[in-house]
Design brief:
CATH superfamily of the largest domain: Periplasmic binding protein-like II
Largest sheet: 5 strands, mixed
Number of helices: 15
Oligomer: single chain
CATH architecture of the largest domain: 3-Layer(aba) Sandwich
Number of domains: 2
């Protein structure tokens, strides 16, 4: 074999090795903020529809729960991404010097609701002022502060909520927290009553929700992986709300057998009708959108409410770098 032919053969082999390496999938683990449900539909859609694979990602989804600190596991390097529930959490990361940054917002609207019985006179947030309301411990430093500042609620209204709806079902004057996609339908199934459901996002509560979050170290050293994961997940959300969600829902049911086809269909319908994924800025700029203006608006509220100090650098909580940028799906 001539020297020129040997050299050409070597270059071809080198190119083949490079191409093979380029096609290798990156292993990625994401921890969700609760047990598998429709609120994670975009992630499961990206998995079920092969979107992650298209972007050369081998993704493992680890569902959350009441006793899992997903942020701690991310910070410790056990996960590559997490789902962060609301806009308070990233600001808490900043305040406590935890290097976790949100890179996209799955929901433009926080699905937090207050729920009351029909005919009890609790049809508005104003009407609920001064009345007992069952909320979780996590609610006190988050949306409860919004209700306190804007609607004059006080802490003596608070009653404990342990994620059982039974106390609400037996007390026709009761008010309880919930998610638009979950508790209202569970109440309807249990009692036959369609309850009063007030979405806080439609009354001035500006929190984003269902963030994709990662560490600053991942952003610094694996920006390409972060970009591909963000792009793929947002494609997953588009498919989940506009396409066939059957395969994604099957994966959700596999991870969380408490989910049923009826619950998932109702929750997905609520996500769509409530504009959780596509509303506001997302209608103009696309799914996952965040803006500096809205982050400033939320930070100003949280600082004004005394939740965070005036000098908090809220811009450390998020980055817009990975939004609306193209990722490489092939080769």
């Amino acid at each position: 074999m001539s020297r020129r032919l040997l050299r050409a053969f070597g270059l071809a082999l080198s190119s083949l090795v490079t191409l093979t390496a380029a096609r290798a999938d990156d292993n990625v683990t994401i921890g969700t903020d609760w047990r598998a449900e429709a609120s994670h539909g975009g992630i499961y859609q990206a998995q079920a529809a092969g979107i992650y694979k298209k972007y050369h990602l081998n993704v493992t989804i680890v569902q959350g729960g009441p006793n899992l600190n997903q942020a701690q596991l991310l910070a410790a390097g056990h996960y590559d991404f997490i789902v962060s529930s609301n806009s308070f959490e990233p600001l808490n990361f900043v305040q406590n010097n935890v290097p976790i940054v949100v890179v996209a917002a799955g929901f433009q609207k926080d699905p937090q609701v207050l729920i009351a019985h029909q005919g009890a006179g609790n049809d508005t947030l104003e009407a609920m002022k001064g009345k007992p309301i069952m909320i979780s411990s996590d609610a006190r430093p988050s949306y409860w502060q919004f209700l306190r500042v804007k609607y004059g609620y006080s802490d003596d209204q608070i009653r404990p909520y342990n994620y059982s709806l039974q106390p609400f079902l037996v007390d026709k004057k009761a008010i309880v927290q919930g998610y638009l996609t979950d508790e209202p339908y569970a109440i309807e199934l249990a009692s036959g009553e369609k309850p009063v459901t007030i979405l806080l996002a439609d009354h001035g509560y500006k929190s984003y929700a269902e963030f994709i979050a990662t560490t600053q170290a991942n952003i610094d050293t694996r920006a390409d992986v972060v970009q591909r994961f963000v792009t793929a997940t947002l494609e997953g959300w588009k498919g989940y709300i506009h396409g066939d969600a059957t395969a994604a829902n099957e994966l959700i049911k596999k991870d969380n057998p408490e989910m049923t086809d009826a619950i998932l269909a109702h929750s997905r319908a609520g996500i769509i009708a409530g504009g959780l994924v596509e509303s506001g800025d997302a209608k103009k700029h696309g799914i996952g959108t965040m803006t500096d203006a809205r982050w400033k608006q939320f930070a100003d509220f949280a600082i004004g409410a005394g939740i965070f100090p005036k000098d908090i650098d809220y811009k450390k909580a998020y980055t817009l770098r990975f939004l609306h940028a193209k990722a490489t799906a092939a080769p």
